[in-house]
Amino acid sequence: METTVKKSALVVSAHSADFVWRAGGAIALHASRGYDVHVVCLSFGERGESAKLWRKGNMTEALVKQHRQKEAEAAAEILGASIEFFDLGDYPLRADKETLFRLADVFRKIQPHFVLTHSIQDPYNYDHPLAANLTQEARIIAQAEGYRPGEPIIGAPPVYCFEPHQPEQCNWKPDVLLDITSVWDKKYAAIQCMAGQEHLWEYYTRVAQQRGVQAKRNVGITSPNVISHGEGYQSLFPRVTEDLS
Amino acid sequence: METTVKKSALVVSAHSADFVWRAGGAIALHASRGYDVHVVCLSFGERGESAKLWRKGNMTEALVKQHRQKEAEAAAEILGASIEFFDLGDYPLRADKETLFRLADVFRKIQPHFVLTHSIQDPYNYDHPLAANLTQEARIIAQAEGYRPGEPIIGAPPVYCFEPHQPEQCNWKPDVLLDITSVWDKKYAAIQCMAGQEHLWEYYTRVAQQRGVQAKRNVGITSPNVISHGEGYQSLFPRVTEDLS
Amino acid sequence: METTVKKSALVVSAHSADFVWRAGGAIALHASRGYDVHVVCLSFGERGESAKLWRKGNMTEALVKQHRQKEAEAAAEILGASIEFFDLGDYPLRADKETLFRLADVFRKIQPHFVLTHSIQDPYNYDHPLAANLTQEARIIAQAEGYRPGEPIIGAPPVYCFEPHQPEQCNWKPDVLLDITSVWDKKYAAIQCMAGQEHLWEYYTRVAQQRGVQAKRNVGITSPNVISHGEGYQSLFPRVTEDLS
Amino acid sequence: METTVKKSALVVSAHSADFVWRAGGAIALHASRGYDVHVVCLSFGERGESAKLWRKGNMTEALVKQHRQKEAEAAAEILGASIEFFDLGDYPLRADKETLFRLADVFRKIQPHFVLTHSIQDPYNYDHPLAANLTQEARIIAQAEGYRPGEPIIGAPPVYCFEPHQPEQCNWKPDVLLDITSVWDKKYAAIQCMAGQEHLWEYYTRVAQQRGVQAKRNVGITSPNVISHGEGYQSLFPRVTEDLS
Amino acid sequence: METTVKKSALVVSAHSADFVWRAGGAIALHASRGYDVHVVCLSFGERGESAKLWRKGNMTEALVKQHRQKEAEAAAEILGASIEFFDLGDYPLRADKETLFRLADVFRKIQPHFVLTHSIQDPYNYDHPLAANLTQEARIIAQAEGYRPGEPIIGAPPVYCFEPHQPEQCNWKPDVLLDITSVWDKKYAAIQCMAGQEHLWEYYTRVAQQRGVQAKRNVGITSPNVISHGEGYQSLFPRVTEDLS
Amino acid sequence: METTVKKSALVVSAHSADFVWRAGGAIALHASRGYDVHVVCLSFGERGESAKLWRKGNMTEALVKQHRQKEAEAAAEILGASIEFFDLGDYPLRADKETLFRLADVFRKIQPHFVLTHSIQDPYNYDHPLAANLTQEARIIAQAEGYRPGEPIIGAPPVYCFEPHQPEQCNWKPDVLLDITSVWDKKYAAIQCMAGQEHLWEYYTRVAQQRGVQAKRNVGITSPNVISHGEGYQSLFPRVTEDLS
């Protein structure tokens, strides 16, 4: 029976904090509903997204990574997700065939019901589109009967791109607004783990409030739902459904 | 309690057969699930979509309209929908403010949970985008507190564009694939009411089969769902949800 | 000498509050720098954007308009702009040839150095694109030697689309981020004139903060500029310059 | 036999000089190959494209039109086309149902093998897109069996948009480069009929040279064709063929 | 004299069956008209497109490749094309500089009059865009005088993208509809060689029928051509012509 | 004080002549205004853009490069820029991580106030988009505190794409028209250094004239500016400003 299978989700994050700002609500929400949510951080963002740490002085790349890993683990725990780190390096992030297979194997193991990752374009950050494309291609490999033949393949889980820092500049257009009102406190607690990027806490709080207002607007003011916080997502595939309302 | 309110849907069709080819599955499916589905035909397609009738000879516009109305009523009955005709004329279809208000009033009366209409672009058929824009604007009017103040306004029902005859040429890209397998027999029966356009019966059967294969592909081959027929839709607004799987 | 000619700007607003939310910073900023800024409100937004007033009860369209006019006049005064009202009606806004010429005549009189108006697309609000297109066409008429021959024609002032309520859904992409830090207090004071739309005050405050962060990001963290609030604009024409930095 | 039917083409020009600058090569080329080419000028461009005439002083709209008509007739004669004038007025050009039917009737009479008109977008000139849309819709009406039933309908002639003044700003992208080398002298002679717009003679000579270089580039430098002048066109419909080379 | 040179075409297929589903009609049609058509299969699709073979059990990659090669050779023979296999591996397909030069050398040898390959985007299959880009870049290398100086370079053959599995999702828009009615029997015979993908036989039969109906629609119902089957293509470069009909 | 810091600009050119045709005006103009302008040529264009040299016979790649380097140095001197050559090879141009860091180091050293490079798309030339992406990514690396920690990072200089050979085919749309009238003589002198590509001299002269006319058109005919030559640019980031006129 389908109901006995635990549902799962996979989140692929270029740097170790992206999953918090961009998908923390989705993670906490689905975790709270019984999903196993697994996060893969491709890098720690040690070069490009740790400015505050570097400015402290007396830093090495190893130390920065350590800091960032602890923050990410703390955030994942608050959100209710498991987490692993590929440690591929950032600025630039690069992925060879072995990395592709490594991620495909995660897909095979997790058998996700949906997938979250970065937008396909981002002129401010080349690591993000690379992560998105790696995720997409790994999903395709994991669907192939001829890759590690005999292993169970995966289905066709929907893939959603989470919100980039400057959405319009990335030609990112949300077609899904996720109501994260019920888990906002968890997301904000996870955000506060990111000690090195305090300047972003209020920025992403406001993002959540704006998407909340928009979600409210798109269900209509006659709806009884109270929505204060949201997250936007862009689907990469059509969804299959039997109900249009 | 929400469950006691009957759900409803509104379909706006430029010509009297469009709703059958393009949305017959959605109509039958939701009718079968208890929705009140209402169809508005803006014209009978008497000039532009009744070639076979005109070629019979001894025809007048009034006779053509009569024929087309009967066909559409028969199809609506099979699909389980109510239907009305605005008789605005076609080729070209034109709509003034009064028509806009008339359609806004239908919105107010139906209070639809979702709306189906044409694509926003169609270089082969200027009546179709006009219908789509009229529908969109009527929905906006019906949401306004200041239009017929005191009347109950409508919420923000999602609007879906159904598939045009040559989808790529209309820059129409489906983001929803509706599984209409369970009602295909009804849709095909409704299609057969369109005696004047027999050349399209098999065309739209194949459209349904192709969208069925694509729906199957997008749920994944590991899914137990058997999908043989589908309909594609393009959303005009983001959907609001609490579940991404 | 060019410096003796006073610079001017024209703002065309579909409803009587749009210019405040969307362009209040630009208006106050340029007014403070000596520009004559003139606002044309095509309608009062009496039907579509006055929900709170209608809910009070005992309202008529005339009363709502009166309210809205007073609010808009108060806001314009704070921002330092002159204002006039075309009273064309809203939901739907419609413009005939006479309106087009009336607006062209405003262009001729104002001789604006730049123009602000709505985005070209907005699926949530059909009055907005209509206002944008009316503005564009009036500008073209005002440039024509054969329109009221003998009158001084206008040049080719740049046209900027201000930010719609849900920017991505309107395919609006800002290519200009205006630093409105120095006039934010005026903009917020003007916003507070809009008593009927209190729910939008904080929404548009956050919009300004987000655009401020993005402006800061796009000048670079090494820049000495302190930017706390911004407004985004999309240009409709290429700008002509002699300096790329 | 197909070869006994004379081929024909229809060109719809918003103002009385557009067909010369933008399609003079295509007209002369096809006329020289035996096509009947017919030009419809929707207006004389009396307001918006006759600046030089107005500046002479002592002008009336009637006089300007007279001038412009003579120029256009002279150009058409050189190019080998017949011409007619709808005299709808310009800046703004507007078309009602009667105009639509009038143009549909021209389609029916000419039975064109291809159609040339303006681009679908032009932020510098709202008359141009209006002409393009009018042409497209008239073509659709002329295809309908129910429009003037009994009259021979038209087929599905390809429609090409000719080059606007600032192509990139109009999102116009040529997919056809017409080699007009053999008729360039005729096009330039026709261009010289436009005494009121002398500043454009060299501009459009350079356009032809640039499109010539591009055509040469797109046939390849190994091709024996000598191409010095070209015209770019954007198709609105797919072409049907049996040969891809 | 140009007429004595035999015409040729090059088809680049990511996996060993793609050229059959997607371009079998074009191949058979041009072969029947005297073209030398050459197919390059970059991989056998052994991992990603051989599910049925893998499910048989007792399979190795070598065996799967053997099977696929035989099927592809049989199909090519029916269509009248020569074929070669680069055996680069699939899921993922990757190409280094040597592969690029190898394909450029094929271009030099074949001197194609046109080129067929995959679409530039395909979110379901990353091998397809890679093949398209490899083909495009190899064509550019083969045009360069400085690549293997002294060898005859190639001209500028048009490149057409054939239809992907889910066209709208790939942003693929056909601007050419090829009438393959006369060779449909050959294409279907070739399709039947693909024993491992029987589920696609009817899918691609319906694709051909739909494109046939659309081709008929785009030549017009007044045309005497009988078109029952078609293939859609998207051009990547403008075509150069002297006739627009 | 800001005024004491000398302004600088960085130009990244895929082949050794691109910076002349495409950005020679911008370089000369800013050099004449006191900027330090530095050009990086990633390759000499020895394979793909030196056809005339190769046709002379008795050529080797080393000789071609030598020729091209001299031409480029002469052109740079005329324009007033410093120049360096990465000698990465062309057709195909490829860049590994070391090249990326090498270019990032140039960014760090130059600290440019603006950056010029190729368009993001070019179906005729795959080296051009590669150069554009390399430039964008190097800029991002150079902004990262964790790349060579302790070194001064760069700000967020605007990046402009210069005009490709066939602009519409590259989906390149200029949003900036640079008035290069005052330095046209220098640009044309630099162009004449490119002895191997004489066929392009007049082509790019006409490009400059057309962009000049368009610049004139976009400032308006009432402006006193005399503009005879221009260069078009497409911005990749929004600009931040305090003045919209």
Structural class of chain A: alpha/beta
Supply the number of helical segments of chain A: 7
Please tell me what the overall shape of chain A is.
globular
Mean pLDDT of chain A: 95
State the largest interface.
D-E, 50 and 50 residues
Radius of gyration of chain A over all CA atoms, rounded: 18 Å
For the biggest sheet of chain A, the summary is: 7 strands, mixed
The proportion of strand residues of chain A reads: 15-25%
User: What does the oligomeric state look like here?
Assistant: homohexamer
Describe it for me?
6 copies of one chain form a homohexamer. By secondary structure, chain A is α/β, with parallel strands linked by helices. Chain A is 40% helix and 15% strand. Chain A has 7 helices and 8 strands, in the order βαβααβαβαββααββ. A 7-stranded mixed sheet of chain A has the order 3-2-1-4-5-7-6, with helices on both faces. Chain A is globular. Chains in contact: A-B, A-C, A-E, A-F, B-C, B-D, B-E, C-D, C-F, D-E, D-F, E-F. Chains A, B, C, D, E, F: Its EC number is 4.2.1.83. Chains A, B, C, D, E, F: Keywords: Lyase.
Briefly say what this structure is.
With 245 residues, the first copy, chain A, is α/β, with parallel strands linked by helices. Chain A contains 7 helices and 8 strands.
What does the secondary structure layout of this molecule look like, with pairings?
Six copies of one chain form a homohexamer.
Chain A: E1 8-13, H1 18-32, E2 36-41, H2 51-55, H3 61-79, E3 82-85, H4 97-110, E4 114-117, H5 127-143, E5 159-162, E6 176-179, H6 184-191, H7 201-219, E7 230-235, E8 239-241
Parallel strand pairs in A: 1-2, 1-4, 2-3, 4-5
Antiparallel strand pairs in A: 5-7, 6-7
